[in-house]
Fold this sequence. Notes:
This protein has 370 residues and is of the alpha/beta class. The chain has two domains: 11-249, 3-Layer(aba) Sandwich (Aspartate Aminotransferase, domain 2); 251-369, Aspartate Aminotransferase, domain 1, CATH 3.90.1150.10. 39% of the residues lie in helices and 15% in strands. The protein is built from 13 helices and 14 strands. The chain has helices at 11-23, 30-43, 54-64, 81-89, 108-114, 134-144, 195-204, 211-217, 238-249, 251-269, 299-308, 334-339, 354-369, and strands at 47-51, 72-76, 93-97, 119-122, 147-151, 159-160, 163-164, 171-175, 188-192, 209-210, 226-227, 275-277, 290-294, 343-346. The strands form four sheets. It has a seven-stranded mixed sheet with strand order 1-9-8-5-4-2-3, with helices on both faces. α1 packs antiparallel against α9 (238-249) and α10 (251-269) packs parallel to α13 (354-369). It is globular and about 80 Å long. The site of pyridoxal-5'-phosphate has 14 residues, from α3 and α4.
Amino acid sequence: MIPIQRPSIGFEELEEVKKVFESGWLGLGSVVFEFEKRIEEFLGTAHVIAVNTGTSALHIAFDGAGIRKGDEVIVPSLTFCASVEAIIAAGATPVFCEVKPDSLNMDIDDIIRHIGPKTKAIMPVHYCGSPCDMDSLLSIGKEHNILIIEDAAHAFGSSYKGRRIGSFGDITCFSFDPIKNITCGEGGAVVVHDEELAEIIKRKRNLGIDREAWSRYKKKRSWYYEITTQGYRYHMSNINAAIGLVQLKKIDQFIKRKREIVKRYNEAFAIIEGISILSWDLEETAPFSYIIRVTNGKRDELIDYLASKGIGSGVHYIPNHLQPLFKPYSTSLPVTERLWQEIITLPLFFDMSEKDIEDVINAIKTFFTS
Ligand SMILES: Cc1ncc(COP(=O)(O)O)c(C=O)c1O
């Protein structure tokens, strides 16, 4: 079976994990700080806080930014449920909005329609790695005094107008889970540009323990610590950071190869009737996943057909406003409701062989032409 996604990991990652084992320091420590430093260099930014998942990154970003009960956050319904659960975990209310059919990224006009007195944040999701219209989002944020908290789980390595996602904006959250553009096994990061906010989020990732207070007293009383804010046990471990450090060195080759595969798919599928390909800017995008729209009503049939040929596929995502848990926040989103019946995710990962790519293309061609 060709899977939809698979991490590209091996001996080098294992060697670095072995070193962590040998050091005896498995938890939050020097390897995590090194990983944060390397990500800061990669993005060209000053404050990266590494955490244990992308979901915790989102939750701690909202909490650290002071988003609370009674506040509203505008979020696309077509995203992974983690985006929405993070809003609810912070006590706030998700307000679902539409996405654009060509990119599956947030529809800016629909965001504007949903802004109200309680709106405190907008959460753009850079779908498949394709950057959202950040200029419009940041200017809306400025105009209405609303934070832009980016769910960049798909977009590590992507750029917007030549600037890396995470190097500008208000708050950016990444995921380094097993299938993301780079993996730590599990992991995530919050990126901010404000020193004070960085300090709050750093404390919150480790139960609110104030490291500054600890360093003030450590000479005299090394056991001393102060808890100055309510926090969580969300820090990244040295084991996960060791994997991430190796992966980060490979990011350019990961991006290059995945761009080539997307290009091959696009060329093959653009001419098939019944398929609509998404718009891709392959100069800027570090592709995370590959999605097409099946416009002849045969999406479910295609999933079954591909499975019969040993090819994995999936639907990312079932809109959150249709999920039982999120019923209290449900609303009518006709574009999203149509789109999700059309989308199918096809295999895309660094280690795909030429034969894997050909098999996927040929199976799709056969399905639509026979
Ligand atoms: C859009 C989106 N947001 C958030 C997450 C959560 O990341 P993690 O799995 O690291 O918790 C994911 C993970 O798949 C995602 O796709």
